[in-house]
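User: Could you walk me through two proteins back to back? I'd like the raw sequence and the structure tokens for each, with a short line separating them so I can tell where one ends and the next begins.

Assistant: Of course. Protein one, sequence then structure:
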Amino acid sequence: MGFSWRLLPGFALSEIGGSGRDRPGLLAAVSLRPEFAFGFRNVLADIVWLEAVQVAGNVEMTPADYDRLYELLNVEANFDPKFDIPYLFGGLVLGESPDHAQKALEIFERGKKEYSADWRFPFFIGYTNYFSLGETESAGKAMAEAAKLPGSPSYLPGLASRMLTEAREPEAALALLETITRQENDPVRRAVLERRIREVTVERDLQALEGAVKSYREKTGAVPRELSDLVRAGILSGIPEEPNGGRYLMEPGGKVRSDRVSQRLRVFQSR
């Protein structure tokens, strides 16, 4: 049996968002007290969700469209908080607008409260932080949280560590990765995590060595010929061991590299 867009007197979709903060639409108000839906709670949730899909389907969404989508998603979640698709789909659409990325995070966080064991919510929180807001540290931590949850893809730990390393904080990435690795029972995924730990360790060491080269240059006015010069100058107590069984080498101009790792950990190049 079909149903019209106005199931109950006064419950028009056009009234959901209202005309301002002081005068919310009737459905929005009822969604805050769903017991007043008189048994139509699920039906009203479906209607609101269909309206949200229509708004999100606009070819060129305006700021007002994004605002309305955000309102609709919250009303839908008030009526049916256990419907996961609106959180995931709606949050992704909101995140396409830089001005609405924070609202996207609010939607994902709301879904996360309902689905605390679902890795997709911290994953998309990380995704939005990274790709919409450029918050690499927050993104990496969210991805690492997602990687701990059952059913999460095996690439998430690597993504988390890359995001954190891009934020110039490999120590933080190592701490997260080591925690995840200790909790991982699957040998295949554990091997991936351990390999990623070695990669982040290399990045940490390279940053430390390049910092020492900079100090040597400031102290002596010259670039060291080899890394052992840093020890002889008292800048380092020793050269760290390359975790892949290789060596760290000086490059012309003061750069340092590993002879076992061809590419430094970066997510984005400088713009």
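----
Protein two, same layout:
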Amino acid sequence: MSKKEIVGAFLGAVLQNDPASMRELANADYIQHNPFIPTGLEPFIEMLPVLQENGTTAENIRMFQDGNYVFMHNIWRNAKPFGADEMVSFDIIRLDDNGKVAEHWDAMTPLVKETASGRTQTDGPITATGLDKTEANKALAKAMVEDILMGQNPNKITDYISAEQYHQHNPGIKDGLTGIVEAVEYLTSQNNMFKYTKIHKVLGEGNFVLTVSEGEWSGKKQVFYDLLRFENGKAVEHWDVIQPIPAEGLANDNTMFGF
């Protein structure tokens, strides 16, 4: 199986409560970065009946690969164990050199029906193109986060974001550069602007790049997952998940980062 197929099979085994397949596909010392799930494969398996009882399902919208990392954009339904009936997530799986599932990171947020742009949190293109531009696009995404979201050179926003097209999937922000400007002005007026403080990981396949960052918002520490789609050296589409980083009730001490 390809790395994407291995990850897809593992996700399917989780949802089908199939411990035998999970043990074939993953390492016993599977490292878990979801703060509410214990680390290790067997403790994870012990939690699966809760998903079965709730009828929890997942729909994979996008799946990309960067080396030994596979990153996914998913919708979870009947997902009350995760916090709401419907949730949107980014999931990252690291495979070891033997092709075994070795490590997992994620961030989740409730699915929102009414959005500022009229787009959903997950619609849009799903297939990567321009695979020869992966590293260039990753460098662009990293610089964009540093300059715009971390405030190093905010005036360079048009160097990174297309003025002609910027499809926005954050449910509270409208399309285009004007949508970003409006959101920044509003959040700043409320003294509640996003604060990005560190980039932990940049993963890409072709024209899609996912950045995983740490910061603060609404008085809480947050993890920011931002998925960008590039065309001709400019970002033309953005999806994200923002999740508070819990400080108590933790099931493991691996943190939501540790790449």
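The chain has two domains: 3-110, 131-244.

Let me know if you want the two compared in more detail.
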